[in-house]
Amino acid sequence: MGAGGRMQVSPSPKKSETDTFKRVPCERPPFTVGELKKAIPPHCFKRSIPRSFSYLIWDIIVASCFYYIATTYFSLLPNNLSYLAWPLYWVCQGCVLTGIWVIAHECGHHAFSDYQWLDDTVGLIFHSFLLVPYFSWKYSHRRHHSNTGSLERDEVFVPKKKSDIKWWGKYLNNPLGRTVMLTVQFTLGWPLYLAFNVSGRPYDGFACHFHPNAPIYNDRERLQIYISDAGILAVCYGLYRYAAAQGVASMICVYGVPLLIVNGFLVLITYLQHTHPSLPHYDSSEWDWLRGALATVDRDYGILNKVFHNITDTHVAHHLFSTMPHYHAMEATKAIKPILGDYYQFDGTPWFKAMWREAKECIYVEQDRQGDKKGVFWYNNKL
């Protein structure tokens, strides 16, 4: 695999792909976070308010133009053309709004500016607009970054062990079952995670991102959960007023469907960043922060890499240095790849193929069979 860390797949069709990918090294790396940081040009860690706002304003302008065109001209189109225009609007608007979500995500990491109050203000406004409880997500997401790759403490897409697979799981391990599961995951997965912690780590008690007393949060964080909820309620009231004035159908077309696409991309991006046949997971006997942060993979979404502000193809660097602004992440990735060597993972498989492959191959994790590390777990699909 070499310094580039690209995946190599055996041409043999008889083997499961979980057996044909070269695994990420699971030993403690021969480098430190400090050595990686020294390899990155210092300017990559500098946050610029004008530059950060330039990306946000550009996305707002593009989204506003899409909205104006849809609400002004689509009603003038013949019916057969409107059936093409609306889906095109939904996809384009959904992609641009995903980019806005990513910038608000940067605010949650304090990567937008040097001022925490400014980051939180921008993040609260634009995550609320996308019906994301900003502070609630910020704190649970911070714990994800602190515990990536841990089977006990990671927050999202924590893989199951084989013993935890339900009896009916084997009946879903087929094309129809995978289609149903992926459809549910990408349409309902995000709201189900926020509301009921679906696919998250287990907690004692009701783990809900909208509940200030949820066990996800400590006492110092609970007031800000109320603020997050207030932001969501304000946007919901605005949507109610819009629907009352323009009609429910208009609200669904201009906002609801693009939001579904945003939610689907959020789940897809996160799923593919942390799910791959070559990636290990660790229990408490083996896990450490650096190996967990390296248990991620960069993906290629083509032109959408830029639309999504490179959150897709610089995720490894993001997990190592989450306060770095996105516009420096590509340069930082190139700087650390020679040091990371085989610990850096990139998979250029088109996302729609990778989505299906990972759903087929990465069903559960089991202990390492090739070495003596009982605290290391790898994906498998043999039910």
UniProtKB/TrEMBL annotation:
Keywords: Lipid metabolism, Membrane, Oxidoreductase, Transmembrane, Transmembrane helix
GO cellular-component term (any): membrane
Transmembrane residue ranges: 55-76, 88-105, 117-137, 252-272
Region of interest: Disordered: 1-22
Intracellular or extracellular location(s): Membrane
Domain Fatty acid desaturase: 85-345
InterPro entries assigned: FA_desaturase_dom, Fatty_acid_desaturase
UniProt superkingdom: Eukaryota
Primary site of residence: membrane
Pfam families per UniProt: FA_desaturase
Entry GO MF terms: oxidoreductase activity
One BP term from GO: lipid metabolic process
Sequence similarity: Belongs to the fatty acid desaturase type 1 family.
Protein name: Fatty acid desaturase domain-containing protein
Organism listed in the record: Eruca vesicaria subsp. sativa
Origin organism lineage: Eukaryota, Viridiplantae, Streptophyta, Embryophyta, Tracheophyta
